[in-house]
Structure formats: structure tokens, C-alpha cells
Amino acid sequence: MKQVEEMGIRRQPGSLCRNVLSWSLSIAVFVVSISVHADTIRLKDGSSVVGNIVGQTGTSITVRTKTGQRTIPKSAIARISYGPVEDEEREQLLQKRRLELIRQRQIEQRRLRRARLFKASGAVEEAIGEIRSIRREDVLYERNQALWRSALIPGWGHFYLDEYEKSLTLLGMTAFSYSVFTNNYIELKKAERAYNSALVPPLFTAVFGTNGLPITIYYFDALKRKARRSEDNLNQISWLAVLLWTYSIADVYYNHDKDFKLSLEFGSDSQQAVTWLHPEERQLGNAVQFAIVIKY
Hints:
Elements: H1 2-6, H2 15-37, E1 39-43, E2 48-56, E3 60-65, E4 68-73, E5 77-81, H3 87-152, H4 156-160, H5 164-197, H6 217-255, E6 263-265, H7 268-273, H8 279-286, E7 291-293
Antiparallel strand pairs: 1-2, 1-5, 2-3, 3-4, 6-7
């Protein structure tokens, strides 16, 4: 005791109690301040730290919590909520965080899907080439089958290709031509037989034939006119028949899938099943996602 007084330090009574009391009050105020005016630091990994921000540097902040001070890198912080956080606000923050995680997951899925689309583009081109090759063989077979049918009867080849309107038109015109040709041919033969079998009396006197007409020079002139008219009709109907055959064969040969192109159409069902996250992705997906409709 003497030694302490000699060093110039005078001990006051009750100083220890006052120090203990001041420290207790400081701790109580700190606890109350943390619980009432605490800041919430939300980290990117989903966790949070509750305390008071007491300092910061260019790369980190210092937070005083119930367990002591803690240094947190700024790169690990998602956001900071200053002051007390109510339950409703906390729920809103959690909901916002969930939406943000869902959004990040969707962006990652979109990135992976885009990578798969780019990777699959080469395989799709190969598949289209293979389908075109198979389709070419089918078209050539169909064309050959339709050609010999059209060469026999105009319109039959179109019926084989399921072109029913053209087929019925050509078949109807062919039947009409055949009917007109047959009728005129019969009339021509009748006129020739009547002309060759008639007996001409001397000086073309009026001798009535079996049909009641007088066998005179006028009778023979009528037979000639009838035969000539039948011949003209036969020539015209023959040209019509040639045109029908030519059109039937040429239409089958040149117009039946002459370019061998596939019809690529977007499938409505598959298109509706895809929810595009960005307009650019729709343009990319349209190059790959389609329904191949082979039209025969």
C-alpha cells in the first residue's frame, strides 16, 4: 500500500465497483442497441449477419455482433438492411431472394439449352440431308409409276398421285374425246359404204335408193360432204387427244415435286410447350425446333 502511494497513484474507495457497473451498463446498452437498431447483412450464400457496422475499408466491412466483431468481404455481401427488420419485411426479402434464385436458375437453364441448340445444329442438318435423300428416291418412284399410267390413259397418273381434280378433268375430257371420235368414225364408214355400194344408173337418171333418196349426182355430193365433215371432226378430236396425253405426261414429269424440297413448318404443339426467356432465344430456337411435314 505504501509502495502504491509512493508511486503517486492514489486509490479511491469504491472505484472497482464503479468500473464493474460502467462495464455492465455498456454491455446492456450494446445488447439493446443490437436488438433494437441492428443492421442485417445478407450474404450471397443465403446466410445473414445481424449486428452494427462499426467500420469499413475498400474491400471489407467490420460488424459488431453479440459474439464480437467480424470482418466481412464486400464481394460476399448481397445487400445490407439498416435498422430493425420486421417480420413482414423479412418475408418480403426472403421472397425476393427466392425469385432472384429462380431467375438465376432460369438464366443458367437458358444458357445450357442454347449450348445444346448450337451443338445440335450440325446433327439437324445431317438429318435433313438424309430425309431429302430418302424423299428423292420416293419421288422418283412415284413419278415413274405415274408416268406409265398417264401414257396409257390421261388422268390416271394424277389419280395415282392423289391429284383428284386434275385426274377427273383429264379423264372426263378423254372420255368425251373417245366418244366424239368413235361417233365420227362410224359416220365416216357409213358414208364410204353408201358411196361405194351405190349403183349409178345410165345418165344419172332418178332411181331411188333404199333410203328414199334419188340416186343422182346430188346424192353422191351429199355423201362426200358427210365423209369430209367426219374426217375433219376426227382430225380435230385426234389433236385434242394428243394434247391431253402430252399435258398429262408433262405435268406429272415436271410439276410433281420437281425441286425435291421439304416443307419445314413449325409445330404448334411443340412451339407452345417452349417458354422462351429472351427474344433472341426464339430466333435461335426457330432454326432447330420444327416439325418436318413431308407432303406427298
